[in-house]
Task: structure prediction
Amino acid sequence: MRFILKPIKLMAFLSFVIIQAFSVQAQKVFKVDYPSQADLKVFIVSYESQADLLVYFVKYASQTNRDGLFFPVKYASQADFKLYFTDYESQADLKIFIVDYESKAGWRNKSKQYLLKFKK
Result:
């Protein structure tokens, strides 16, 4: 009996860890047409130094393993966040700069991290 419980506890623990690893960092985004549809209003800045977040768009959803790596989805229901891209910096909740390399993606202004808290 004792030998059976150890593998069961181990499997439960590993299942929990795997689920957490896949659910924590997903940043699948969908572009909406109206501000009222958005979770977040975003402005794309011209210079890296002006940004709150440096963003790199990945090719596969499985690559979204840290902040700043976005994967665009086809349908709003698939997204973790619905984004509205505004024309004016003053209307934005978050300023982003799109980088050319995945390694450069991440926060420049960590005080804005609360905006991308993951939904459960």
